[in-house]
TrEMBL record:
The keyword Acyltransferase applies. HAMAP family: ArgJ (MF_01106). It is found in: Cytoplasm. The gene is argJ. This is Arginine biosynthesis bifunctional protein ArgJ. The lineage of its organism: Bacteria, Pseudomonadati, Bacteroidota, Cytophagia, Cytophagales. Heterotetramer of two alpha and two beta chains. Pathway: Amino-acid biosynthesis; L-arginine biosynthesis; L-ornithine and N-acetyl-L-glutamate from L-glutamate and N(2)-acetyl-L-ornithine (cyclic): step 1/1; Amino-acid biosynthesis; L-arginine biosynthesis; N(2)-acetyl-L-ornithine from L-glutamate: step 1/4.
Amino acid sequence: MIKNITNVRGIKCWGAHTGVKSMRRDLAIIYSEVPAAAAAVFTQNKVRAEPVEISEKHVNVNNRAQVIVCNAGNANACTGEQGRLGAEAMVKTTAELLNIPEEDVIVASTGLIGEPFPTEDVVNGIKENIHKLSDNTKAGSFVANAILTTDTFAKEGFVEFQHDGKTIHLGGIAKGSGMIHPNMATMLGFVVTDLNIDEKLLDKALRHSVDRSFNMITVDGDTSTNDMVAIMANGLAENKKITSEKDPGYIIFREKLQEILTHLAKLIVSDGEGASKFIEYKVSKARSGEIARKLVRAISDSTLVKTAMFGRDPNWGRIIAACGNAGINFNYKKVNLFVGDKEKLVQVLEKGQPVEFDKNYVKKLLRDSHLRVYLELNTGNESGLGWGTDLTTDYVMFNSVYTT
């Protein structure tokens, strides 16, 4: 049986249809039976949705939470006082029904920006469904589907590992398809674990892992108003509490957290609106990991690179030009560059000099749906990985009529 977030001790959830969306589930509730350590990261867009503002305040109170409630179909962004009151009503209703403090509620929304928030539908949905919370695997599937917008499939992940004689469970769900950019884009990610860990270390592990997963993906270069990744750790595995970065438990937890977030991030890219290619970008032999990641982001977000990948054009000059726009010292005369599909890479540049290669053969490789672009800087030993899509005519058509 495939495991999901309901296999984490003490986690119950439900996904329901409230009528905000016509055909899909549109309300998700993830509940921990006991208060949990919590951490979250939020959009870097200066225009922030009402639930983002509220949830950030709640998490910052004491780094604790017990429930995440999310509606789909309406972003509750740029909605003014009416939207703020709607988000507060979500918090108040959920807290009262679960008999928990309001600051232990994390709220999220996703959907169209600027539409009046359907407070009555969402609040009634919470009232009608909160008693259905379940640890059944089917409930985990329901909640994963209830946060989707333009996504074509649900995005779930689950890992487990051993620590302190205990089996630790880690489960997560995410949504995202368009408005994806390496700065926390129009995406939501919710993760739960039964690990017993200090709140500050949980926050540190989350930020480290997000920087190397969700912040390394791109579809179209646009950040959104509602982005959020939140994690709750309820301690029900009953391991000795992790309080030090040197603890082997912290090291393996951070590794597994990054693993599950990377898995979810790559699922988002593979579901990119209108995309026909999944592209892995790797920069290696760099002076630092930060430099490598900046270059990955510069290449993967280049419109010219994306369109070249769509057209199966081995135009390596666009890749090098994108590196020159990354805002770092970049000496192209030292680099080696390779392009290809998931099986075969072809070198097109050696120490900054063009390499003779069969363009027709490379164009054939670029027909594949999974491509790779690898760059060696030859200035150090660090590397960075990222993932993106091509930019297609289907993407343009889809987003040109998004609201109509």
